[in-house]
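anyone else get weird line breaks when pasting these?? whatever heres mine. first is seq + tokens for prot A
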Amino acid sequence: VEGGAEVGVIDSLVSGHGGNLENLAGVLDQVNVSISDIRDMDQMTHLVKDYDIVFSLAGQVSHSESMRDPLLDLSLNCQGQLTLLEALRRCNRDTKVVYSSTRQVYGRPEDIPVDECHPVNPVDTNGIHKMAAEHYFSLYYEVFGIRSVILRLTNTYGPRMDLENDSKGFLGTFIRKALCGETVCIFGDGSQIRDLNYVDDVVEAMLLAGAIDSVDGKVFNLGHPEPVSLQRIVDILQTLLEFPSKTVPF
């Protein structure tokens, strides 16, 4: 919007999946909002026909929920992306897609740091389905010329993040409990390291991926050069807020 682009937002606003029109406060009158399901072919064919770049962020992100309801995860993360690609194939093959994947496609790291050549070996249905979606994008680029870039994201934080749902990741849980003065539990000894991405940096990376033609068809890890331990995250929070913490054998 700040760059003068015509921006459209497609969201089904399914409960529990993060969609909230309040997130568009301040720009709501400057964007085209459609309350639609990415799995609906007719709607998607109509909605994507006039756009130059699509940032595909829709889907299920909870790894635990993906194991509890793998068929829903399959529908959201595979059927949804395939429907988007089919809609583009039918009506707008010149569009470029920036797809937000996950570092979970790698599974348990064999080497640190993990680069894009690391073997993929997801350990849950969410990782499997996100990996399958990556292959859809690669296939449609090779066969139909629909350009795409795949970004494998790590833990993203910042304003408007979901703090209520523990299944969305440890960081939101840590922050919520810290704000409420509750005990933050670290499962393990706290030495486990994680990459953290600030949301503004993620947005900048996505905009660059959409604007630069030379990255078409490529996969990039989107992380931080300096990973941080779980204990260090808690220590930082405790410099700002008063709350107890403990480690739990795991």
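and prot B, same format (seq, then tokens)
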Amino acid sequence: MSAVAGDGSSGLEELYPFLYAGSSDLDAVLTQVRQSTVEKAREIVALRRRVAEADGARLYACAKDLAKAFAGGGRLLAFGNGGSSTDSQDLASLFLSPAGGARPLPAFGLTNDIAVVTALSNDIGFDVVFARQVAAFGRRGDVAVGLSTSGNSANLLAAFDEAARRGLVTVGIAGYDGGKMAELDSIDHLFVVPSPSVHRIQEAQTTLYHALWELTLGALDELEGEQP
């Protein structure tokens, strides 16, 4: 069944107005599609550059904390809702099973086990679906990474508070203005992608955590090089 907005429209008109303009000129439509694609590409390139310039030094500081955690036997716990859940699983698999012969690091996603997720949601409440898993799995010296476009997800906020109480290194990745995540004292490292577009936010967040992974590997090499 297709999604239909309250006014009877599909909601796609706002995203792709050139497809609903009533024009039968195929060349004109294709030209508009190309222009739209180019504009979106320009937007994400500019946003990625903005994030890199604003957060490059803090990303490196975060990577050093992650490297220390992994060097001490820590693990990474990743979580998020919806599309951010998919991104959190991608982040965990990036650390755990990287391509190109890079070293694997212990990481797992808290949305992977649907039985656990639905049991906690049904029996207790969706707000604790990540916090209860952090309480069960998290150990001092582990890393908790939560992703959100809005920064307002109640279950992420609860998970960060639980992780901080247990001595985990906490990393938040949010969009817009950071939302309620920007107000938390329990997040050690917060990275905000300042955009009003969910699509651009998630694209830039993907770039951000890939950069964090690469920096973490480099920081681990530096740590090992310092050891006698």
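btw re prot B: The CA atoms of residues 170 and 187 lie 5 Å apart. The domain at 22-226 is CATH 3.40.50.10490 (Rossmann fold).
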